[in-house]
Amino acid sequence: MSHRPVITILMADDDEDDCLLAQEALAESRVAFSVLHFVRDGEQLMDYLWHRGKYSDLSISPRPGLILLDLNMPKKDGREALKQIKADASLRQIPVVILTTSKAEEDIYRSYALGANSFITKPVTFSGLVEVMKTLGKYWFEIVELPL
Q1: In this predicted model, what pLDDT tens digit does every residue of 119-139 receive, in sequence order?
Q2: For residues 11 and 41, what is the distance between their CA atoms, to the nearest angstrom?
Q3: In 3-state terms, what secondary structure has residue 77?
Q4: How far apart, in Å, are the Cα atoms of 71 and each of 29, 61, 137?
Q5: Do 33 and 144 meet the contact criterion of CB atoms below 8 Å apart?
Q6: CA atoms in the 13 A half-sphere facing the CB of 18
Q7: pLDDT tens digit string along 55-91?
Q8: For residue 96, what are the β-bridge partners?
Q9: What's the order of all strands across the beta sheet hosting 66-69?
Q10: Please, are residues 64 and 138 in contact by the beta-carbon 8 Å criterion?
């Protein structure tokens, strides 16, 4: 079996319950070679990605292979953060999957216009979230070739 690098998934979401559920769903989905890190708002997300403040140590804030981004967060929302990520030459190739409660057409169109790779409405059940995590893991880490 070939050795695969560990892929960091960075989840930006201010809802503590959603983060815990995502962590459990990821464990349950048995997505291999991945570790989940969390930030609570768009400012923390950008600090993490730009290694500022408490995220300056690369060993505790490794570059993510995938960003799961909620749109509605305090301080800086997901739309603003997405715009900044896709405007930064060193970050724009990181896939960003919008994972949000929003089903608004405007949010869907705007997210893709800003460069999101996928838009997923958060499932309401835990089993639905496990399915999403399984599918994301399979697609992004087994099927797609990512620049590492």
Answers
A1: 999 888 888 888 888 888 778
A2: 10
A3: coil
A4: 24, 22, 21
A5: no
A6: 20
A7: 998 888 889 988 999 998 888 899 999 999 999 999 9
A8: 67
A9: 34-39, 7-12, 66-69, 96-100, 118-121
A10: no
